[in-house]
Amino acid sequence: MVLNLVDTIIRFNRSAPADQRFDGIHIDNEPYLLAGWDLPVVRAQILDEYLELNARAQRAVTAEGGLEYGVDIPFWSMGDATFQGVRKPASFHILDLVDNVGIMDFRNVAVGNDGIIAHARALLTFGNSTKAKVFVGVETSPVAQVGLPKLTFDGRSNEQMEHELGVAHAAFADDTSYVGFAIHHYVPYRERFR
User: Fold this and answer.
1) What is the pLDDT of residues 93-103, one digit of tens each?
2) Does 44 fall in a domain?
3) Domain span at residue 168?
4) Long-range contacts from 52-60, C-beta under 8 angstroms, 24+ separation
């Protein structure tokens, strides 16, 4: 399905007027939600297929030119994977493969062991050695507050959100991979925070 989507967008861009073409493709494909993830043998197979899928999509986009390819990844480790003969965290392989990454760093405070900065640090640091542009994703949806209020800025003021993001932005300023924040659930953000 992902490769079909990539192919469809490439074909669309070939025939569309320049001002109507896509600039990129960004996929939120979460392999850890698949059945069997908790079994080490199954997880290894899933990660291998996930990495190969993203490598193939990136190759297709690169071969075509004029597009970027990116994916979302969690801030927490999906585990180590051996890909193309190299063993390291699967998220590091992703950073090596794609043009951009969105870290699903859903917290509403910048500092502390469970804050935005701490959760993004390792991925940004590794990203500095790659071509990948890294967006730090934050949540604004009220749905996330049902389970864990710390996951979302919903329920906090615009000033509180701006303060926390400002602190995190300053902490990431020296990371060459960091390109800004990505807002998950744009509608609540637009309606409440802007």
Assistant:
1) 999 999 999 99
2) yes
3) 99-194
4) 52/83, 53/2, 53/3, 53/29, 54/27, 54/94, 54/97, 54/98, 55/83, 55/97, 56/3, 57/2, 57/3, 57/6, 57/25, 57/27, 58/97, 58/98, 58/99, 60/3, 60/6, 60/7, 60/10
pTM of the predicted model, to two decimals? 0.94
Residue 83 lies in a domain: no
pLDDT tens by residue, 23-72: 999 999 999 999 999 999 999 999 999 999 999 999 999 999 999 999 99
Taking a C-beta distance cutoff of 8 angstroms, is the pair 61, 10 a contact? yes
The pair of three-digit structure tokens given for residue 153, joined into one six-digit string? 């800025």
Residue 155: inside a domain, yes or no?
yes
Residue 40: φ, ψ to 5°: -50, -40
* Residue of 139, 138, 151 whose CA lies nearest to 180: 138
Domain assignment of residue 136, yes or no: yes
Residue 139 DSSP label: E
Nearest 10 degrees: CA dihedral of 162, 70, 65, 21? -60
C-beta of residue 153 within 8 angstroms of C-beta of residue 193: yes
Helix axes 40-64, 90-97, angle to 10 degrees: 10
Asked whether residue 109 falls in the same domain as residue 191, the answer is yes
* One domain for residues 55 and 114: no
Question: Total domain count for the chain?
Answer: 2
* Residues 54 and 114 both lie in one domain: no
